[in-house]
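Progress report, Aim 2. The chain analyzed during this reporting quarter is listed below.
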Amino acid sequence: MRHFGHVSPAARKNLFHREPCEFTAGSSARVLSAALGATLYSPATRPTLADDVLKQAGRGVVSMVLCLEDSIDDAEVAAAEANLVRQFADLDARGEEVPLLFVRVREPLQIPDLVHRLGDSARLLCGFVLPKFTEERGIDFLEALTAAESASGRRLFAMPVLESPQLLHLETRAETLAGIGRTVEKYRERVLALRLGVTDFCSTYGLRRSPDMTAYDVQIVAGVIADVVNVLGRADGSGFTITGPVWEYFRVQERMFKPQLRRSPFLEGRAEELRTALIEHDLDGLLREIELDRANGLLGKTCIHPSHVVPVHALSVVSHEEFSDAQDILRPERGGGGVLRSAYTNKMNEVKPHRAWAERTLLRAEVFGVAAEDVGFVDLLTAGLAG
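Predicted structure tokens for the chain:
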């Protein structure tokens, strides 16, 4: 699979200076953690789950979470597990390419039980999403994952969700983060990415952000994100990929503020129509939040609606300018440091301070591609939506 793989080869050739790489569930953790992109959640109760997975794969989705936790009623868990086993068997029998598939469980013992029940179709399973992750809960989850991996002989990844009240509360945050850090470091080879449960953060204080506001406008949430990145997202080799929070909105609602999406990138061709459609569906706030995610050290995003996937991927593509800067900074002859003017002659590139940024940018370029010099995110959005 590859990002923008649902777009025709001819269209990709025009869009990209360097096309996104191909990858599989067997690729390295380094590649997979960067390639998650818009991870689409779906309740495991859906009777057409196998069809849904293949349909979304055809629309450019490369990672999905099939949820047995908050998206379903407590009374539905047993039926959802049984449905999950049936749908995996169906997918396996069809033999078609599927996205990276994860299952969000509630309790540790579900992990080895589900892997056992899946049988041969467990080959389609990439790993598990671990909710309300703390040091105490996390150890049990990761030990269960280790046992399931050993029993099945298959590599399984974990994606812990950081969403507990202990992480949000100021008096317990530092120790909670330290405990999470100790746990994920111990099981580093199994932890693919850390996910942020911002909806749970907000619920602790009875908050809910409107479609006109990003997670970063809710100061108590922004503070937690900053601390998580500070402790667990460092670029010195000790950090992990941390994914962006969910965007909850996908229906038209009355707007209180002016649209955040400026007009200028949309002035040619049908671009104005696209801008209008994005605003009407409250996706201008999503686009702004994606940009803020990346500015704050996050990569990828939790999504609960298919309409969010292409915007996340389009804004994850590395621009030609970013790629040029990153390459210049990482040239072997720049190993001693120094300052140089960018090839675009509009900024300073300082080799040593910008090195970690450049390395992360080239990894993103590998999995999401590099846009052609005259291609912007509107072009990528339009192509991604058209398929």
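The chain has 16 helices and twelve strands. The radius of gyration is 21 Å. These observations will guide the mutagenesis work planned for the next reporting period.
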